[in-house]
Amino acid sequence: MSTVVIDVGALSADDVVAVARHSATVTLSHAAQEEITRSRKVIEALADDVTPHYGVSTGFGALATRHIPTELRAQLQRSLVRSHAAGSGPEVEREVIRALMLLRLSTLATGRTGVRLETAEAYAALLNAGITPVVREYGSLGCSGDLAPLAHCALAVMGEGEVRDADGELRPAAEALAAAGIAPVTLHEKEGLALINGTDGMLGTLVLACHDLRRLLATADLGAAMSVEGQLGTDAVFAADLQALRPHPGQADSAANLRAVLADSAIVASHRGPECTRVQDAYSLRCSPQVHGTARDTLGHAELVASRELAAAVDNPVVTLDGRVESNGNFHGAPVAAVLDFLAITVADVASIAERRTDRFLDVARNHGLNAFLADDPGVDSGHMIAQYTQAAIVSELKRLAAPASVDSIPSSAMQEDHVSMGWAAARKLRKAIDGLTRVIAIEILTAARALDLRAPLTPAPATAAVVSGLRADVPGPGTDRYLAPEIEAAVQYVASGEALRAAESVTGRLR
């Protein structure tokens, strides 16, 4: 098992994926430990100051005018976490919670939050023990941080609330911590606030989504290539010189993938001569690089924003490098919320064009000689008719999920927090959208593979043939109607696991 060292500098996106998804362990660097200790001394020096300091000797939000006496400050921090652990709804996925905890620990490691070293080490201990606090779907407005999700994690560090242990069993936090030999933390001045005031939930979701979408967009190019081939389309429009006339980098990469995947296709070559009377293909085939490329360029922007956020120290107030304790607005989730919404829009668009390519296979007026719905005996058999319905239903849902959350602000905390980002909501819907896109691409590949088999004795390109061969390990070729849902799920796993893309790359080399 790998170990991620958390330093004063930024985590990488790969670090987040390793800890969140693959259970890599974490450790604080010596430099991080020193910085945490140094900034804690600043907070402790303010504890007895007669001047109020937000989060140290005052209440929170709209209650910040209340000065809290020394003897009540431990209760202040406990009360903050308990009251803010107010989530509701279904449990959030383990990998999202682990990403959230890792990113909060990364901010603690910068020394800008003023927590004690033992508090930061408790987060590392929970991650390493595989203990995952139970976080609920609803509760974050994406401003003042992902308050409720982070509070549920802080509650577990205190030995309260519910967690899932390394085996996934639901247990009281106190019991799970005791079993792992982890002592619950008693929070001191400023610590409760430092543990809940971050954009870590939405950022963790963004990093995981970017990782998945990078692979999915290459797989979408693969599905498009199979559709072009199976519908007797042309690869001429993907020529590099034509794409260079509109120099978007994502478009160029997508077209390069299509050229690589379609190379040496006997099916494409069979209709390249002067006898072919088709002037040009439909938009869903011809414009695939333009649509997929737009999604790629959007993803590149989102990855840039994520890299900046991974280098950020988000808390309020913060301990500055020169030892001041200052209020700020860096907890506002707007930068992350906007790109989460932007990605949901492009995901819906990529899925939409994939569904249109799939539909063309099923219509005898447009599929160039294949049976209606690719059925073995149309009328007796329905072929892939309802697979397209499933695809269309998902695409329709993705269009609804593309409506931006980040423009919807509901004031909170007695109008002190009067503009919020809704970044957590944007993150939750993008996660659903990524799953939907995976399924739409899988159905296109499932349908295109059937069409390529039906083009025999013409043979597909070596790359697409490899994809079909890999799929056939779990899904039989054309024939009379079968129970279709398991075949769709097998195709979904083929795409989601990356196996479909790896099959193509075994021929082409790494696709872009």
UniProtKB/TrEMBL annotation:
<comment type="pathway">
    <text>Amino-acid degradation; L-histidine degradation into L-glutamate; N-formimidoyl-L-glutamate from L-histidine: step 1/3.</text>
</comment>
<keyword id="KW-0369">Histidine metabolism</keyword>
<dbReference type="InterPro" id="IPR005921">
    <property type="entry name" value="HutH"/>
</dbReference>
<comment type="similarity">
    <text>Belongs to the PAL/histidase family.</text>
</comment>
<dbReference type="InterPro" id="IPR022313">
    <property type="entry name" value="Phe/His_NH3-lyase_AS"/>
</dbReference>
<dbReference type="GO" id="GO:0004397">
    <property type="term" value="F:histidine ammonia-lyase activity"/>
</dbReference>
<dbReference type="InterPro" id="IPR008948">
    <property type="entry name" value="L-Aspartase-like"/>
</dbReference>
<keyword id="KW-0456">Lyase</keyword>
<dbReference type="Pfam" id="PF00221">
    <property type="entry name" value="Lyase_aromatic"/>
</dbReference>
<dbReference type="InterPro" id="IPR001106">
    <property type="entry name" value="Aromatic_Lyase"/>
</dbReference>
<protein>
    <recommendedName>
        <fullName>Histidine ammonia-lyase</fullName>
        <ecNumber>4.3.1.3</ecNumber>
    </recommendedName>
</protein>
<dbReference type="InterPro" id="IPR024083">
    <property type="entry name" value="Fumarase/histidase_N"/>
</dbReference>
